[in-house]
Structure formats: C-alpha cells, structure tokens
Write a structure and sequence with these properties.
By secondary structure, the chain is an alpha+beta fold. The chain is about 35% helix and about 15% strand. It has a seven-stranded mixed β-sheet with strand order 20-37-45-41-42-43-44, sandwiched between helices. The chain has a six-stranded mixed β-sheet with strand order 24-23-25-21-22-31. A hairpin with a 2-residue loop joins strand 13 (about 615-625) and strand 14. Helix 6 (about 90-100) runs antiparallel to helix 10, helix 13 packs across helix 14 and helix 30 packs antiparallel against helix 31. The longest helix is centred in the N-terminal third of the chain and has 18 residues, at about 285-300. Mean pLDDT is about 75; it is low at about 415-465, about 560-575, about 955-1010, about 1070-1085 and about 1255-1380.
C-alpha cells in the first residue's frame, strides 16, 4: 500500500506496478536513484523540478507533493510510482477519488464547502462558477455527489482540467530526438562510439591551448613533427572549415572522417585542401611546386626505396604534372585533375599514409581494424627508428610478452598493404583517356588499397596471406619489468617503478616513443607507465636512453604537537622551543634524470604538489644535524654526485613566512653544524622569524647605506652610545643593530637570524610583536628613530620654544627651526637622513600666511588615486555584424545616460538608439535605467543593443514584407498588448511583459517602436525521466536577441529579423565540389531557416499561451505573412538538432571585435606615473575641509584654509616612501599604480622652495665664496633679469657651498672640524672657533659675520638657493660648478607585493662591488638591474653624489669607548626569560 500519509490509498503499489512495463519500472528506479542519490526519499525541490517540471506553479506542485504522501523527510519511491500511474494511466473513477481526497482527510466521509473553497483558492486563486451546484443540498458533500458534479464539470478547476479533460502528460515518450553523437554519426563515416571516444581526446588536446581555443598556435606543436612545418597551416585550414582560426569538435570529426574513413576520392579531396593554400579551388604552378617539394621530403622521411621524382627538378615535375593533367589548359589543376593524378601516384599515397598515422596517433581517432592499427604503429616506429634517439625526448618501455600478443593481434609482421604495391609509374609520363579514367581509377584503387582500412584478408602479388583473427590483448602489463620496492610511499614522478637491473632490450622489453605509447594507452590502458628520458652521455657524447635514472627519497617535516606549556618564544617569532627537534619523515620517492638541474626538480616538485615555487626549498640531507641547502639552481644531479636513494628534504614555508629548517637551526644551533660559507660581504640574507619580511626588508635597505654601515663596522657607535637618554632604548637598539651589521658584512654566512634585534624591537615597540604582517616603512621609522636616540650626542636636551613665522622671511624662520632641531638632536642618523620641509597655511578669509619648518627623514609621497573606472561594453547591432567591444573610462559617479553619450560617439549610433542591458548566461538580467549610476557587475556583462528610432528605415519591416492584402506598411506602431498606444512603457515593467524599451512617445500620427526578447533554445534529451514532458527539456544558450516588432510586423518578418542577426553564427553550405561526406549528408539547410520560433514566457522554457498542465514548451510561430500578434510573449529560437550540431558555430557566440579603445583604456589605467609627478602632488596646494579648520592668529578663530608643503633642505640620504595604502569605505586598499623613477642622476632641486638671493646675501656683504664668480650685472635691480644683463648672460645660481659644507660638518659632529678644513682649503672662514662649541654659539658667530640678513647655517647638506626660480635654466654642469650638487643615485629599493596584511616584502640593493642583489628573507642572489621588479617599489633609497661620507665617521683617537657590558647583561637577563619554557 502507499505510505500512511498518501491520499491515494485506494491504489496499491502492486496494482500500480502492473500498469507499467518492466522497462518503464527500471527507468523510473534509475531516475529516482539519479535524483535522490543513496537516499530512499526524494526531497520536495527535487520532486518539483525532476518529476513535475518547472512549469507547474509552486502552489499546485506543493499540493500534489503532499497528496502523494510527501513530508519533510521526503517522498518514497513507491509513492512516486503510485502517483505517476494515477496521473497518467488512472481511470476517471480513480482520478475523481484522488481529487476528492484533496478536500477531505476522510475519503469515505464528507467534504466541507469551507475546505473545498480553501483548497481551490490555493490552486487557482478563484472559485469556479459551478461550485454552487456541488453544494446545492448543503455545506457538505459526499464522494458520490462530488463525483457526479465533477464528471459533468471537468473544466471546473485546474487539476480537474488536467486529469479529466484529456491526457497532456504521459509516462513514456517514444519520440526520439537525435543526440549530438547520433547526428554526427549519421553524417560521417564514424560510429557513435568512435565519436564519444574522440570527444574525450579532443578536450585533452584543447586543454593544452594557451588561449583556450584549438587554434593554429596549439595545432602546430601537436602535428609537427612528423608533419612538415610548411604543411601545418594548410592542414589546419583543411580542418577549419569556417575559417575562424579554431577547430571545433564538429570540424575535427568531419575532417577525420573525410581523411581516414571515406572512400579514396574523399580522402584525396581532403589532401587537395591541404595544398590549396589560397583556397581558390585550384592548384597553381607555385602551389604544385611547394606540394611536390614537401611530398619528396615526406617520402625521404618515411621510405628508403626510390621513386623517379627523386631524380628530377621540382619545377620540372610541377610542369610535367600540369602538362599531363591540366584539363583546363590554364596553368592550374582542378580538384578532379588532382584526384586523377594522386590516385596512382606514390608520393600522394605516402602523404595520405602519413596523415592517416597522425590522425590516429596524435588526434585520437581509433583504428577501424586491428590491421590498420598494426600498420599505423609500424609506420610510425620505422620513421622514429630512422631518426634515432633525440636528447630531451622520452621513450616508454613495454613488456615483450604483451608486445608479442599485440603483434599477433595486429599482424604486425606482415608487410604493409600499401607498401607492398608495386612502385607506381611517375605521374609525369601518365597519359590516358580522361573521360572514364577518374571513376575507373578510383574504384580500382579502392579495391587494391582499401584493405588498409577495411579488409580482413589481402591478396599479395606472390600468393595469399591470410590474416588470422588473434585475440585482442588486454591492458598493457609491465609488472614483470619492475623490481619489488620495499619503500611503500607514493611516487611523485611517473616512472612507474625501478627496473630490474638484468633487463635487456628486445629480450625483456621494447621501447616506443611517447606519442605511440599515448595511443596504445588510449586504446588498451596499462597498469604501469615506464617512461625513460633520452640523455647525452657525458663520456661518449652519444644520445642514449637512461633506463636507470636517479632514484631519490623525499622527506617532509612532520607537524609538531603543540605543547601544553607556555612558550614565550613567540615574542621573537615562530621559533620552536629547543626541546622539540624538527621531525623529518619519508613521504615520497621520485626518479629524475641525472642531467636534471636543481631548478628542474624544484619546479617539478612545486607543480606536482601544487605549491607556489617561492614557498618551497630543497635540502640535501646528509645527517640529522647536517643539511645543505640546494640553492644553486644550475647544478645537476650528476655534477653534485648525487647517488640513488639520496634523501632530499622538501621544506615548505610556514604560513607566517618563516622556514622550518632555519627555525630549527636557530633553536638547536649548539647541536647542529653550521658550516660557514664564504660570500660577498653584505650579500647575506635574514631569516624570517614569523612574518618578519617587513623588518628584513627595512634592515637590508639600511644595511646597504654605506656611510651608516661603515660607522657601525668601524665601531663608531661604541663611542657615541647615549644610555642616559630618557626617550632612548638604553643603547640596546644601537648595540643589537651594530652586532647584526657586523654579521651581515663579515662575508662568512649566507644568512643570519636577527633574533636580538627582533627581540629588542618587540620589547620597546610591542606593536611589532606577534606574527602579524606590519608596514616596513613604520618599522624603518622606528628603527632610525631608535638608532638616533641611542646615538644622540645631546645628552641634556634644552627646552625649545616654537615661534610663529609672524611675517618673517622664510630663511630666517627655517634657520631658527633647524637650529632648534639640532639643539636637541645630533647624531649620525641626523647627519645622513634628516632634511627640512616647509609647511605653509593660508587663511582663505584674511589671507594671513603662517609658515613652519619641520625636519623629516622620509618623503612620504602620495600616489594619485584613480577616480575613474574601466568599463567594457559590447555593442550588438541589428544588421547581424560581429559585435564590437568598446572600452570606456568613466567617473565613479557617472550615470548610464552619460555612458550612452560617450558610447554613441564611438559606435556611431545615436543615444536613443542604444539600449543597455545586463546579460547573465543566456538571458537578459535587467535593463539599465538612464538615471541610475553605472555599476560594475561580476556575474553578468553589459551589452548595448541597437534599436531603431521611430520612423527610421530600420524600424520598418523589410521591403519584401507585404501584408496578405497587399497593404503597404506605413509608419510602424508598437504592438501594445491591448494597451492604448499613448501609454508610456517602463523598461523594467515591459521586461516582465516581454517587451522592451519605448524610446519616444510622440504626438498624434507619430510612430512608436517596441521590441521583443528572443532567446536561443535547444532540446536536451535524457533517458532517465519520470513524465514524458521531462524527456526533452528546453535549455537556453547563446546570446539573447532584441527583435524589433511593430503593429505591421508579420511572422515572417520575425523570422527574417532573427535570421539577419544569427546568420553569422551558422556556417554556410560549401560549394558542392569542395564539400566532404559530412557536409554532403547534411540536409538541415535544405529549408529557409534552420530554426523554429515559439512563443514562450519570461523564463524561456514554458509556453506563453498554453496553461501549465498542457506541458507545452512553446506554441510554434508559423513562418507566414500573418500579423505577429504575440501579446505578452517572448520568443524562443528553437534550433533544428541537425543544424545545431553541424552548422551552428558555438565558438562564435561570444566572439567580438575589440575596438582600439579597450587597449587604450587599459593603458590609461595601467599607465605608470613618474616620481616627479608624485613630488608635484606632494608639493601641490590643497584645501582643508570643514573638519580640518585652521586657527588663524589674525582672525583669532578657526577658518577654512589652504595648505602647501615644500622641500627646503635635502639630506645626503634621501628616502622616498610611496603611500600605497589607503583607508577607503572602512577598509584598507592598496594602490597598484606603477611609479617610474630614475636610477641615476635624480635631481629633486626643482622642488625646493624658491629663495631670493638678494634677501639672503645683501650687497653690503662680500663673501669669498660669492665673490669667486661675481655676477656680470652689479645693479641689484637687474641682477635677476637676464634680459637686462645683455646677450649671452647665463643666470647665476649661487650659494655659499664651502660655508654649506663647513656648517654641515660642524653642527652635528664636533670632532670633524679638521677634516672639514682639509677638504675646504680654498675657504677659510673668519672667526672660526675650534673645539667642541655648541651649535648655537657657532651658528650665532657665523651669523654675525654674514649679517643679520644672511642665510642661516645649513647643518651639513648642500643648501640650494634659487634666484627667482631661474635655476631650471642652468645646465647640469653649471649647477654642479655653482654648487647645485643635489644629484642622487639609487642604491636600494624595498618592494611590496600582494595586499595589505597578506603581502610580502623584498629588497634590491647595490653592493659596494657595484652589483645589485636581491634579498628575499634568507635568500640573497645577484641580479641585473633590468630584472628588478620596479613596478612594486614601496620605498626608494637615494644617496647624494659627490659627498665624502667618510667625514661623518667620528674621531676615535683618544676617545673612550662606552661600557656595553651592562647592555649585554641586561639583554642576556631579559633574553633568557623569553627563551625558557615556563
């Protein structure tokens, strides 16, 4: 019986089974198993979709599901069968009982009117008018009375109409829609099984494509060799019938059929296409010459016997062929001429034989007979054996036992039928009566040579050879060739196993090339692949097969079990506790050629394990405590003398970017041997201690700052440690950094671990603790500040009062600010890295200007943010031309109306002719409203459909479309679905109705144009279904169409409009003389249109007119001259199966031409910016917003203002930082903008503030430095005017360079005065004070000698003074001569890749030896500057040219070193606390 909850208790399962056949019951069981899986119950959603179909309304489907016995658990198979039998094969009495059960829970009782009305409201949303007759005797009705009423009113409600008014869905559908494979099999010489097998191989070949298309680029490496490269293009186009530079599966199937399975005439037709390069249908003399030349080469590659053509000139052979076979006497061969020549020509037959081999072995066609298979393999092997072994190729071993079985099966040792024919006479001497010759020769050739394809026996000239039908061998069994491996771990390589040492060729195994092995594996399968590489013997120089490659054992690290005890090592990175040794376990074996390099193995392992190359390293495992990193990628296994069963460790980087082996070495340094390796000084990496690449990158950049490194290497920091600085780090930072620098530059280690410095930084800056990725610029700022405070020569910092500029000259305010800065900060860091910025704020109300001058050690430059977006939009026109993709750059706030205007200019359409729509899959998702903002979508793409404007020719039906009464069409009027024509159509509302946008609503007598959405459909057939309506399900594909429709549009007009747009997707029927068998047999284009139009609803799968219970997929729109009154319908384009399978070119569905604007838009988006543009943005004036009001001292209130930054003073070491990270909409994003920056001769002087020399140096002051080159004009009023000075005057850009340098050396370092004097012998400052005076005294003394208006002293840098901004006119030499030595050279780059918080930092730096090195944590490699990834630059380090940096080193003679024992004791004490597991 049915389930307890079922309303169909009156029909048992056993009774229902009797009404179905065994095949139907099996189909229902299989369908239930397919849809429900291992469960015994079908879910409601599955029942709605798979049993009833999507066309049934959800409320009706839910009622049916419940009435069948469905619950939240699901629906049992027995209930499904009972319900389907009732619906499709039940009697009217049973159906009436079922319908009555829907209204009452007691089938033998009464149904209340209230319950009946409630159910009918759910099913139909209304009550039938005849329902009163059913309850004419009261509010309850019994079954008998309900049945009588129901049988008299079968149309009362939905379910009664479905079940009682005629069967619209049956249990079994005997109609047979041909599948794709059946269609191809019917029009080719290939069996359906061949096509299915060929399709699998086709997708494997296509997967090798770089572009995703089976194009010429993919095709050539597959077939050449053995096909000569000159023939590859012709062979490709012989397959590519539609000439779209892509061989689809239909084309390759038809081509293989014509080339290998058809009669000889059809095969020669295919060859003719190969040689007909220009595709004009004839072979010219040049084409014939090229053909003969290639055919001769093919003969030499494949045969050792001779033919007469080998002794003749190619041109003479071509002329001879034309002389004998040119029937037109026009100097070319037609297809018929070629066929007559080729049928009895040995060269043509040999080429056909080569194509036959390639089609089977390379392109995947399965041989028709065993004899074919044997001859194909034999021909291929003979050619390969003549060529010999080629280094770099691989050959495969096959057990001789299986090989012998296969040879017997294929009659391999019998002579080739094709090759056994007597050598044919030269075509140059062939002459015969041509009237009957072609047909006779073809039939004769088929009888003599068709045995290659079909014959089971063959008759040879000297007797009969019977091909005995041997048993087909099973899968290739190579098990007897390999030794039993005691190591039971997976292998990474595909070598199949280690061979037995006693094996001999031809006795135990045979070898075949890779392509032959793939073919045999495809046809038979195999239990073991045994590939072996061909290598070049180092001793003999001969190519040989490496039967016994190097057998390696690979170890990996085993994850350590986390300890329950607290591990405080976390403060210094991902360092395991010393008591937990690193465990390495054997996980893989692999075989590699001894000629394989470390790079080859590294790449193979990373790809095989699907691990990024940069996160994997290989170590040579010598012992538990002795490992060697294999970092020289050029070494081979042979050069490293690595033997069989050598153990290698695969080291995979931790998630926090640290390396397990390095961490183990750090924690067990006392146990493990650390071998010192001589390296270039400074070319030492830093171990990653757990997401510390940001720190490593900054340290490497600072380490390669030569003057600072020299300072630490010479021990200068020991003489200047300031342990009493309250804001310092008690000397810890300077001491730890100095120790690390000495390790980096001693040239004895490839990498070191910056443990102490990492610990020190984490101690004083907890924000850098833990394992999170940090900003390298922030770390660098903290490092430089820490070094400065630990080395600050000012031990007691005086109080400094900040003063407002108060209208004073800039030079005075700047000098005062710089003097104040140096009173509190003097160190080697200040000497090298500190410069000065001018910050000017101007009140927008009163114009008051306030200036401040602040020190800086970074130039943090903004990157211009791209406020535009790149949008690609495809324009589809009504004329059926190939769509064109345009690239637009729009503002973020742009609306679709602006997009239309921009697009209209590019595509030559008016804005009102453009309809924007988002296409998702094969449907139009929605229409873009003009007032909406443009938005970028991921799941769909934007299309612009052309629509005709009212009154235009395109808006009217075609000229030949005339109504049946001969009425000539007037201005078109929109079919408004019974709506008044004056109604305004909303695109979204009209989308729901099946009609699109109405562009204009005009006055009386004006035309209004409407549009219908058309969707491509095909029928998908399944053999496992429940109801007949589900056997062939409509499926949408391709691009939707916009079809114009007016009140005068006929049904035939619709067909014409659709065909105009889709005809480009259908390959035309080729001329009869150039078609192949598949094309000849295709009659799908015998009628006018290869599709049928149907009226459908919005989803495209159900009929627009018929009720759901008819299960109609769409009513046919006949191709007549009747008016197309489609009401609210969409239309579907239902393709004829044969046309769809053979003519429809799927590859062209989404093909479009790319307009040049796409590339231009991409270039604009990715266009790099210059470093100068970043400096311009940095120094440009900006307006402060309402939330940044400035307090104006003049207005005495907060005001709106403008702010401007300028460079005032440049340091010897200039660090440029790009502000790539921005906080936008609550999250951090990174700018990927590329910045182009100079490597040498970077001159930032143009961005220095312009200064008036007359104000800085009045004429009353005469300086030796300035009087050295007096200006030609003595009058101050003309000194700044070049024209006033006469011709040939070069503007003089002066500043006191010696005074500059003098003050630079004396202000920050008291001990450098003598070296400064030695360097500045030509300048002797007056009243110079020797000794260690404070800066303020010396500065004040110098100011007195200069005058009250002279320039304040520069501490140490060249202070560039610009005279009325005329320095830009000075030549480089002049600038250098007159003191403009602010030219910088790049020496280090910190680069960041990835996103914020998850990226990686690396460093490129220039060593003192002049070479550039790439620092990637512990790895350090030499690189050329051209290899540097400058696109990801994050910080740039420049050093000023022409500066003697030795003067920055302190004088250590007679000085006392600071006592660092306390520092070491402090560090060791705290360090041990962190290194002990509590």
């Amino acid at each position: 019986m049915g389930a307890k909850e079922s309303r169909i208790g009156f029909l048992s399962y056993d009774e229902a089974v009797k009404r179905v056949t065994d095949l139907e019951l099996k189909r229902l069981k299989d369908a239930f198993k397919r849809t429900s899986g291992l469960s015994f119950y079908m879910t409601p959603q599955c029942f709605y979709r798979e049993v009833l179909g999507n066309g049934v309304p959800p409320n009706v489907a839910e009622v049916i599901y419940t009435s069948f016995g469905g619950s939240s658990k699901g629906l049992h198979f027995n209930n499904v069968v009972v319900g389907l039998v009732l619906l499709t094969r039940g009697r009217d009495e049973e159906k009436a009982k079922y319908l009555f059960s829907l209204f009452t829970s007691d089938p033998g009782g009464y149904a209340a009117r209230e319950d009946v009305e409630a159910v009918l409201q759910v099913l139909d949303g209304e009550l039938p008018a005849s329902l009163g007759k059913c309850f004419n005797k009261g509010d309850k009705v019994n079954y008998e009375h309900f049945r009588d009423w129901l049988l008299e009113n079968k149309e009362a409600f939905t379910l009664s109409r479905w079940l009682l008014s005629g069967v619209c869905a049956i249990l079994t559908d005997d109609s047979d829609t041909p599948t794709f494979y059946q269609t191809l099999s019917g029009v080719t010489h290939l069996a359906e099984s061949d096509i299915i097998d060929l399709e699998k191989h086709y997708w494997l070949l296509k997967a090798q494509s770089r572009t995703g298309r089976f194009d010429l680029e993919t095709f050539i490496p597959l077939v050449s060799p053995p096909i000569h490269i000159s023939l590859c293009e012709g062979l490709f186009f012989a397959f590519d019938e539609n000439r779209d530079n892509h061989i689809d599966f239909k084309e390759i199937s038809c081509g293989l059929s014509a080339c290998c399975r058809g009669p000889i005439a059809e095969r020669q037709k295919f060859c003719f296409k190969v040689f007909d390069v220009d595709r004009d249908g004839v072979l010219s003399h040049d084409e014939l010459s090229d053909m003969v030349l290639v055919l001769l080469e093919v003969w030499k590659d494949n045969r050792i016997d001779m033919v007469p053509e080998l002794y003749n000139n190619v041109s003479d052979i071509a002329k001879g062929i034309l002389k004998v076979h040119d029937t037109t006497k026009l100097g070319y061969l037609t297809l018929e001429d070629y066929q007559i020549w080729s049928v009895q020509n040995a060269l043509a037959h040999e080429f056909l034989n080569l194509l036959f081999q390639v089609c089977h072995i390379v392109l995947g066609l399965t041989p028709a007979t065993s004899e074919e298979e044997g001859q194909i393999i034999r021909g291929w092997l003979e050619r390969e054996n003549r060529l010999g072994l080629q280094p770099g190729h691989s050959w495969f071993l096959i057990s001789v036992q299986w090989w012998q079985q296969w040879k017997n099966y294929t009659n391999y040792d019998q002579p080739s039928i094709l090759n056994s024919l007597q050598t044919l006479k030269s075509t140059a001497t062939l002459a015969a009566d041509r009237s009957d010759e072609l047909e006779g020769i073809i039939h004769a050739s088929e009888r003599s040579t068709d045995g290659l394809a079909h014959a089971e026996t063959a008759k040879i000239a000297h007797g009969h050879i019977s091909f005995q039908a041997a048993q087909r061998p099973g899968a290739i069994d190579n098990q007897d060739l390999v030794a039993i491996d005691s190591i039971k771990v997976p292998t990474l390589t595909m070598e199949g196993g280690r061979l037995k040492r006693s094996l001999r060729n031809h006795r135990h195994f045979e070898i075949v090339p890779e392509l032959v092995w793939r073919a045999l594996y495809h046809w038979y399968g195999a239990n073991l692949n045994l590939p072996r590489p061909v290598i070049l013997n180092s001793n003999t120089g001969q190519a040989e097969l490496e039967l016994f490659p190097c057998y390696l054992l690979f170890l990996r690290h085993e994850s350590a079990t986390p300890s329950s005890q607290s591990n405080i090592w976390s403060n210094i990175g991902n360092v395991p506790p010393p008591s937990v040794p690193l465990t390495r376990v054997l996980v893989y074996t692999a075989c590699f050629s001894r000629k394989a390099s470390i790079k080859d193995i590294h790449l193979f392992v990373s790809h095989r394990l699907r691990i990024k190359e940069e996160t994997i390293r290989l170590w040579l495992y010598n012992s538990e405590n002795y490992l060697t990193l294999l970092d020289d990628e050029d070494h081979t296994l042979e050069s490293l003398q690595i033997q069989d069963e050598q153990q290698l460790v695969i080291e995979i980087r931790n998630k926090d970017m640290s390396w397990p082996e390095e961490m183990s070495l750090i924690t067990n340094s006392s146990k493990m041997e650390r071998h010192k390796v001589p390296t270039e000084k400074g070319a030492t990496g830093l171990s990653n201690l757990g997401n510390t690449c940001f720190m490593n990158s900054s340290i490497q950049c600072v380490s390669n700052t030569r003057p600072l490194t020299d300072y630490f290497i010479t021990g200068g920091h020991f003489y200047e440690l300031n342990r009493s600085n309250p804001i310092g780090m008690q000397g810890h930072m300077a001491k730890c950094y100095g120790d690390l620098v000495m390790e980096l530059w001693n040239g004895t280690q490839k990498n070191v671990a910056p443990l102490k410095l990492r610990w020190t930084i984490a101690k004083y800056a907890p924000r850098f603790n833990g394992f999170q990725q940090q900003d390298s610029q922030e770390l660098l700022a903290f490092l430089l500040d820490g070094l400065h405070e630990d080395l600050n020569r000012v031990h007691e910092k005086p109080y400094v009062e900040l003063k407002d500029s108060d209208g004073r000259p800039d030079w005075e305010v700047a000098s005062e600010a710089w003097e104040n800065h140096l009173r509190r900060n003097r160190s080697i860091v200040v000497d090298l890295f500190h410069g000065q910025l001018k910050s000017q704020v101007k009140c927008k109300t009163c114009g008051h200007i306030s200036s401040r001058f602040d020190p800086f050690n970074f130039l943090s430059l903004p990157l211009p943010m791209d406020r535009s977006m790149h949008l690609e939009i495809t324009v589809i026109k009504l004329d059926g031309s190939t769509p064109v993709c345009y690239g637009l750059r729009l503002n973020m706030d742009e609306k679709y109306t602006g997009l239309k205007k921009l697009l209209s200019v590019m595509c030559k359409l008016k804005p009102e002719q453009i309809l924007l729509a988002e296409v998702h899959g094969a449907k139009i998702k929605n229409f873009s409203q003009d007032h909406q903002k443009v938005r970028l979508t991921v799941s769909s793409f934007l299309c612009a459909f052309e629509i005709p404007v009212p009154g235009s020719p395109a808006s009217k039906p075609p000229v030949n479309s005339i109504t049946s009464n001969g009425h000539q069409e007037n201005d078109p009027v929109l079919i408004w679905n019974e709506w008044p024509p004056s109604a305004v159509c909303n695109p979204e509302a009209s989308l729901a109705k099946g009609f699109l946008n109405v562009q204009n609503i005009l006055g009386n007598g004006s035309a209004v144009t409407g549009y219908i959405i058309a969707m491509h459909r095909k029928m998908m057939r399944t053999e496992l279904y429940f109801l007949s309506s589900q056997k062939n399900r409509p499926s949408l594909f391709g691009m939707p169409l916009i079809v114009p429709c007016t009140v005068h549009t006929t049904k035939k007009n619709l067909y014409d409009a659709v065909w105009m747009q889709v005809s480009r997707l259908v390959s035309p029927l080729p001329p009869q003389d150039s078609s192949n068998h598949a094309q000849d047999c295709d009659d799908s284009m015998g009628y006018q249109y290869p599709f049928t139009l149907r009226a459908v609803d919005k989803d495209g799968t159900s009929c627009a007119f018929c009720p759901w219970y008819r299960f109609c997929s769409g009513c046919t729109i006949s191709c007549t001259d009747e008016r197309a009154s489609l009401s609210n319908a969409y239309i579907s384009v239902d393709w004829d199966p044969t046309a769809l399978h053979l003519r429809y070119q799927t590859s062209l569905e989404r093909v479009f031409e790319e307009h040049c604007s796409v590339e231009m838009s991409h270039q604009t988006q990715a266009e790099p910016i210059s470093l100068d543009s970043c400096l311009n943005a940095f120094t440009s004036e900006e307006e402060l917003g309402e939330d940044e009001l400035y307090y104006c001292s003049k207005c005495e209130t907060h005001r709106l203002a403008t702010k401007k930054l300028d460079l005032w003073r440049l340091p010897p070491i200039l660090i440029v930082h790009f502000k790539r990270f921005h906080f936008v909409n609550g999250c951090w994003i990174k700018s990927q903008k590329i910045v182009k920056f100079p490597r040498e001769n970077f001159d930032p002087s143009n961005f220095l503030v312009s200064r008036d020399l007359e104000l800085c140096f009045p004429h009353s002051y005469t300086s030796p430095a300035l009087s050295r080159e007096p200006p030609p004009c003595q009058n101050s009023s003309t000194s700044a005017n070049p024209k006033a000075c006469g011709g040939g005057y070069e503007p003089i850009c002066q500043h006191p360079p010696q005074m500059n340098r003098r003050l630079r050396l004396s202000n920050s370092n008291e001990n450098l005065e003598e070296s400064a004097e030695a360097e500045s012998q030509d300048y002797t400052p007056q009243d110079d004070t020797a000794g260690g005076d404070e800066f303020g005294l010396r500065s004040e003394h110098l100011l007195e000698s200069v005058s009250a208006y002279s320039l304040k002293a520069s501490t140490r840098h060249t202070d560039v003074i610009r005279i009325h901004d005329l320095t830009t006119n000075c030549s480089t030499e002049s600038r250098k001569r007159k003191g403009f030595d602010s030219i910088y050279s790049l020496y280090a780059i910190s680069c960041h890749t990835g996103i914020m918080g998850g990226g990686h930092y690396v460093t490129y730096a220039k060593n003192p030896n002049g070479k550039w090195y790439y620092y990637n944590d512990s790895s350090c490699k030499e690189v050329h500057f051209e290899e540097i990834d400058t696109d990801s630059a994050y910080m740039l380090f420049y050093e000023q040219q022409g500066v003697n940096y030795s003067q920055f080193l302190p004088k250590m003679d007679g000085q006392k070193m600071a006592d660092t024992s306390g520092i070491d004791e402090d560090f060791e004490s705290d360090y041990k606390k962190y290194c002990v597991i509590q």
